């Protein structure tokens, strides 16, 4: 397969190429991101609450019972943790698929998940590390503004783990280094894709909210079929809006490496059988983003000093 055109791109070109790439590989990427939503859709049945206004003081003559409320909150947090982790794995699988397709290699949904599971523990470590940092910032009042910044710092952590196959702590550090100078563009990308996700979610979920308001009476649970349909359509909406974000972040990752490390030249050398495409050991070891030297040290070697003359024999 011919080497794809990989060259330095502007931010506008990156977004334009991301949407074009998404349209070209819509089915593969959508199926990858549909799986976690389809798996957790039946769990929405456990999150149903009776319709109408509910209060803790249902009977004013008795003390309030906070037990059901705390149990329900616990179920919600468990559901969110499970869904976010499965969604994170689907994002990792989509990043791998985008990387392979971007580099001109065919990939299927099964291939993407199989290769993702080969790095399962490293990805789980990344997810846990980022979640712990976010929770720590939220629990510390004056560090709350830092929480959104973490997503900008570690936006490239999944591509780094999957493409470069380095240790997690190095991957997190390298993501912070690679995103330096790119975080404004990453923020705009997150903002654009979030607006797109809310528009699609509103279009797909509002009919079910209207149906629930008309069919479910006070104190009743929503019908099972309505809850399942709402969950399936929600999963479909997520499957349509998640891939553009992952495509954009993956292309921005490769574009950053092209600009700073000459990654396009490394790929050309690899295709010619004369080099490697990773070339990150030097950058990780030295904590810098200096371009990887493809041809070794090109500094000319100084000539050796002239030999010292033999000492003259002593005169008698």
Helix content class:
55-70%
What's the gyration radius in Å? 27 Å
**What integer is the average pLDDT?**
79
Q: Describe the biggest sheet?
A: none
Span of the ends, CA to CA: 82 Å
Number of strands: 0
Order of helices and strands: HHHHHHHHHHHH
The total of helices stands at 12
* Count of folded domains: 1
Class derived from helix and strand content? mainly alpha
In the predicted model, the low-confidence regions spanning at least 5 consecutive residues are 52-57, 274-301
**Approximate strand percentage:** under 5%
Outline the secondary-structure elements:
Blueprint: H1 11-24, H2 26-40, H3 67-102, H4 109-118, H5 120-139, H6 146-153, H7 157-164, H8 168-179, H9 183-215, H10 224-261, H11 263-271, H12 281-286
Helix pairs in contact: 1-10, 2-3, 2-10, 3-4, 3-5, 3-7, 3-10, 5-6, 7-8, 9-10
In words, what does this structure look like?
It is a single chain. The chain has one domain (11-50, 67-286). It is built from twelve helices and no strands. The chain has helices spanning 11-24, 26-40, 67-102, 109-118, 120-139, 146-153, 157-164, 168-179, 183-215, 224-261, 263-271, 281-286. Helix 2 packs antiparallel against helix 3 (67-102).
Outline:
This protein has 316 residues and is mainly α.
Features:
single chain, 316 residues, mainly alpha, 12 helices
């Amino acid at each position: 397969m011919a080497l794809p055109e990989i060259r330095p791109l502007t931010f506008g070109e990156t977004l334009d190429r991301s949407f074009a790439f998404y349209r070209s590989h819509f089915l593969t990427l959508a199926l990858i991101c549909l799986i976690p939503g389809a798996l957790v859709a039946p769990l929405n049945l456990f999150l149903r609450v009776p319709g109408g206004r509910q209060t803790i003081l249902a009977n004013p003559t008795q003390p309030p019972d906070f037990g059901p409320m705390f149990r329900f909150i616990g179920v919600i947090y468990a559901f969110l943790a499970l869904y976010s982790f499965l969604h994170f794995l689907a994002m990792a699988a989509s990043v791998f698929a985008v990387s392979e397709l971007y580099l001109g290699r065919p990939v299927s949904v099964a291939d993407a998940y199989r290769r993702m599971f080969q790095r399962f523990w490293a990805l789980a470590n990344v997810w846990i590390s980022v979640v712990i940092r976010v929770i720590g910032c939220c629990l510390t009042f004056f560090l709350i503004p830092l929480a959104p910044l973490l997503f900008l710092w570690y936006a490239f952590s999944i591509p780094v783990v999957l493409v470069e196959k380095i240790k997690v702590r190095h991957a997190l550090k390298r993501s912070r280094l690679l995103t330096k100078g790119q975080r404004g563009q990453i923020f705009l990308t997150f903002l654009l894709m979030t607006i797109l996700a809310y528009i699609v979610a509103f279009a797909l979920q509002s009919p079910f909210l209207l149906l629930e308001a008309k069919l479910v009476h006070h104190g009743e649970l929503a019908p099972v079929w309505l809850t399942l349909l709402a969950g399936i359509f929600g999963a479909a909406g997520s499957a349509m809006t998640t891939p553009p974000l992952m495509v954009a972040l993956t292309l921005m990752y490769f574009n950053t490496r092209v600009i700073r490390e000459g990654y396009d030249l490394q790929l050309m050398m690899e295709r010619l059988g004369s080099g490697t495409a990773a070339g990150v050991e030097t950058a990780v070891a030295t904590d810098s983003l200096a371009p990887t030297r493809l041809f070794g040290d090109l500094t000319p070697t100084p000539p050796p000093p002239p030999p010292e003359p033999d000492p003259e024999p002593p005169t008698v």
